[in-house]
Amino acid sequence: MLAWYDTNARVLPWRGFHDAYRTWVSEAMLQQTRVETVLSYYGRFLSRFPDLPSLAAAPESDVLKEWEGLGYYSRARNLWKGARQVVSEYGGILPREPEKLRKISGIGPYTAGAIASIAYDVPVPAVDGNVIRVLSRLFGIRSDVTEPDTRRRIETLAASLVPAERPGDYNQAVMDLGATVCVPGTPDCSRCPLSACCDAFRTGGASDLPLLPKARPQKVIPYAVLLIRSEERVLMRQRTERLLQGLWCFPMLEGTFSMDGLAVQVQKKLHLSCSNVNNAGSARHVFTHQIWEMRLYTMSAEASASAPAGYEFIPLDLLSSLPIPVAMNAAISTMKE
Ligand code: SF4
User: Fold this and answer.
1) Ligand 1 site-directed mutation target among 133, 174, 180, 181, most atoms within 8 Å of CB
2) pLDDT for residue 250
3) 51 touches 45 (CB < 8 A)
4) Which residues contact residue 292 at a Cβ distance below 8 angstroms, ignoring those fewer than 6 apart?
5) Which residue among 73, 164, 232, 241 sits deepest, i.e. has the most Cβ atoms within 10 Å of its Cβ?
6) CA pair distance 330, 294, nearest whole angstrom
7) Phi and psi (nearest 5°) for 293?
8) Which residue segments constitute the domains of the chain, with CATH numbers given?
């Protein structure tokens, strides 16, 4: 794997350093996100927060703002919380021991393994989805990889394979093999350095592995998104829910409404009398477990209207400084029209 890595490693901006902070940021960004997407965020994030103390010292909303569009915002919040924890508990330097790393906010077993092996040369595995796929095919593991027993078996195997020398390169080699050769669906076994010892290659059926339980269908939720203007201000709310926590959204009412019904609901739920209610189109946003089917409505509140509890009227020229999720993009475009 190391010989293969020496000639096939992907060239990525977070590689070639022994810098635990850079490894942490890159791994946080890469969770559930394509490398191509991360590339456009990583450099900017690093220039804004060049080291761990600068990240810890920043307000949470600045961190969310830099993360805007990357999704899965709990990663950004946990990274920020974790950075503050590292400053208070470890003087701003990430520890090298995986057990200590795992106790830091935002660092799970995979990230702990990645940081320890890549930045500190500690011979521990970093088991992510790519590694699970490669190992389940290589060893012909045909049981559900989300089951704890199977997971433990894969982790034990992974740990037994990490070499004492260049453990970080080895872990990255397996990740790269999973990302470029042993890909989901049909792997390109003809380019694989492991084909001579691969169970799935020998016996067939690689594309059926790893074995996963059937995904539950996403819940589709209809929303009315309300663009309530009061002069040069618009009503918004900083979310407290787990999904998109800390990000700013326009008021949303669950359900589908007629225009008249909507004005009544706005009065009832937000205690605002609004006029000029207009349909401003629709938008759809797909999250991992739910889909928002959004109908957008513009409406006007009185100039003297005060925001209901939990909401704020935000001056339009301040909108671009707030962290706003991609799910609100269509609504934001409507505001600019
Ligand atoms: Fe994956 Fe094929 Fe390589 Fe086996 S031989 S590890 S299935 S790419």
Assistant:
1) 181
2) 97
3) no
4) 221, 223, 283, 284, 285, 327
5) 73
6) 10
7) -100, 105
8) 2-208 (1.10.340.30), 219-336 (3.90.79.10)
Pairing of strands 219-230, 290-301: parallel
Ligand 1, residues 190, 201, 208, 209: which to mutate, most atoms within 8 A of Cβ? 201
> Which are the catalytic amino acids?
27
Write out the two tokens for 181.
């050769």
Atom number of ligand 1 nearest to Cα 188: 8
- Long-range own/partner contacts, residues 49-57 (CB < 8 A, 24 or more apart): 49/25, 51/21, 51/92, 52/21, 52/83, 52/86, 52/87, 52/92, 52/93, 52/94, 53/83, 53/87, 53/92, 55/21, 55/79, 55/80, 55/83, 56/80, 56/83, 56/84, 56/86, 56/87, 56/92
Q: What is the pTM of this model?
A: 0.83
- For the Cβ of 182 lying below 6 angstroms from any atom of ligand 1, the answer is yes
What sign has the CA pseudo-torsion 292, 297, 303, 304?
negative
Atom nearest to 189 CA in ligand 1: 2
Residues in the chain: 337
Average pLDDT of every residue of the chain: 95
Could you tell me the two tokens for 65? 């703002």
Q: Would you state the pLDDT for residue 336? A: 72
Residue 310 amino acid letter: G
Rounded Cα distance, 321 and 315, in Å: 11
Alpha-carbon dihedral angle through residues 158, 163, 168, 174, given to the nearest 10 degrees: -50
The span from the CA of 92 to the CA of 86, in Å, is 5
Q: Please give the structure tokens belonging to residue 38.
A: 């991360």
Q: Residue 125 has what pLDDT?
A: 97
The closest of 135, 124, 107, 134 to 167, measured between CA atoms, is 124
pLDDT at 217: 87
Site of tokens 């309530």: 228
Mean pLDDT of 117-130: 96
Hunting for tokens 């034990």 — which residue is that? 156
